[in-house]
Specification:
Number of domains: 4
GO molecular function, one term: mechanosensitive monoatomic ion channel activity
Subcellular location: Cell membrane
Membrane topology: Multi-pass membrane protein
Protein name: Mechanosensitive ion channel protein MscS
Helix content: 55-70%
Oligomer: single chain
Shape: elongated
Strand content: 5-15%
Distance between the termini: 160 Å
Domain Mechanosensitive ion channel MscS: 257-322
Largest sheet: 5 strands, antiparallel
Order of helices and strands: HHHHHHHHEEHHHHEEEEHEEHEEHH
Length: 450
Amino acid sequence: MDNVQGVVANLSGTLHNLVAELSSFWLLVQFGILLVAGFAGALAGATIRRRVDLDKLGASWPPLIKLLAKALLDCIGTILFIAIAFIAREAMLSMTWPSRSYLVGVAVSLATAWVVIALVTSLIRNQFIHRVVSIAAWTFAALDIVGLRSAVRAELDAYAVMFGGLRISALLVIKGTVLLLIALWIANALSDFMDRRIKSEKDLTPSVQVLISKMIRILLIAFAIITVLSSVGIDLSALAFFSGAIGVGLGFGLQKIVSNFVSGIILLADKSIKPGDVISVGEHFGRVGIMGARYTSVDTRDGREYLIPNEDFITQRVANWSYSSDLVRLSVKFNTTYDSDPRKAQAAAVEAAQRVDRVVQKPTPQCMLTAFGSTSIEYEMWFWIRDPAAGIINVRSDVLLALWDTLAHQGVTIPKPGPARVIYELAREDEPDPPKDQDDTAAPKSPFPG
């Protein structure tokens, strides 16, 4: 209650001083200085931003310098306002009492705090965290500038609730939230930096790179949370009261999330699936992209990216086309007529497969005679490729087209479909016999005896 009265007293004193200043000539002078400084700063800042091409000027600058330069250019109008207002205040301090330039001094301090906070928070790329940190930092600076920080802090700390042996106040919640956001941002920034460094190491396999990056991210986030809880005065031993509830929550509500997370760690540890592998799981076929904490992305040939839960790779049957070798064997089937030489057909098929660019020469393509069908000879040809991610159907199509051209060139005939051939043969049987030639008729008998 005393804190509330203190805040009210401070506000009353501030309002009293403001009312007293409203009746003075110097208040109008200060408003005039601020308006002129604001107009001049905005006009000069807009002119400078139009004339400065930052993209062209800083083309070779590092990314960090570019971010700071862009933030500085955005604040150039405010910086000019600060310079003009500061010069005007110094002139007023040399001519009259400091109280007659108090409003200008407060405006200069608030604008300076805004510029400093804008430059620092420009390094935060997450827009939500950027806004929260900016608002919280400027609010703290504004309260400190006007002399209300201590009173507001005491008032926020007065509203609190008890959970077991833990006292949670409004001030603790605000401080913890802001510090946690900043700490998590720093942890993510460090983990991204470490992730880029780890991926640049060529001696590590992709699965080991992802595993190390995940462990570093988890450790940094855990360290950030523990550090924030300790810095705001929370005794970690007091959180033991909630351990039972957290365990129940993990057992029921977060069961799938924990299962997917553990499955992702297992996949990375045993290297059964790693980024870049070509796999087929369920109805999905494609290349493994990002292996996240909850899911793994699979890029398909049609441009789609499927996010498959990590648990599915543990519980379902997965075909890894590039697990131990990048060689993949494919096959095509074809038939020839019985009046075609089967050995010539086999040689033509191998030659056709070798003419396709994506078919490797070793192991050599092989063509096997598999059966003597009712109307044709049946074959199956095997060939190998090294890039299944580039497509399976398209390389089969190329081999079949090459097979069509080669068989036609070698004089090997591909039979027509069965039903059409039967109908054609039946039609040939139903045709009438051709008329006999006149020369084949019997010679007439002689009218003369003997």
